[in-house]
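So, read this over?
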Amino acid sequence: MLDKNGIAKRIAKEVKDGYYVNLGIGIPTLVANFVRDDISVEFQSENGVLGMGPFPFAGEEDADIINAGKQTITTLPGASFFDSATSFGMIRGKHVDLTILGAMEVAENGDIANWKIPGKMVKGMGGAMDLVASAENIIVAMMHTNRAGASKLLKQCSLPLTGVGCVKKVVTNLAVLEVTGEGFELVERAPGVSVAQIEEVTEGTLVINGEIPEMEL
């Protein structure tokens, strides 16, 4: 199975030349480290950055240059900084080609819950509500199960929803799945992971058509 970097590396294959991409907090921020060198991509962060690069090396951090998760980042030549109104104008105006988000739960119909666990303190939903309402291409990056071993790919989300029917694809440490009208269609399995292992930890409807190839990273 994959670690967090492996998930990000697989999602980086979904990023195309010329894309404007929003990276959510958590695993999605790692995607910038794995994008091919021969394509041009603009990474956007809702705190007002366009043109993010990979994470800085130790000792080269600039505390004033951060992403939405308050992590220090690098910027590429031509990068720009702007206020939140402009940033959310980009998001709500559908100027972002691909949105990559983390999640606590995803339902088989594409619902996503990624901002609140009842009974725990949270600072708010951040830009997630705007992103899921405006983006037409949303990929979720997450672990297949929670710390207790329970599935995070469900028939119906149990946590407060961030968005309804909006997720197109999910990449976990075990598999790549597309959200379809029938449920989670298994597209690829992680190296060394069997279809039976994925079935065992997927609560939502799992659609299996033919032989499922192993991921190429």
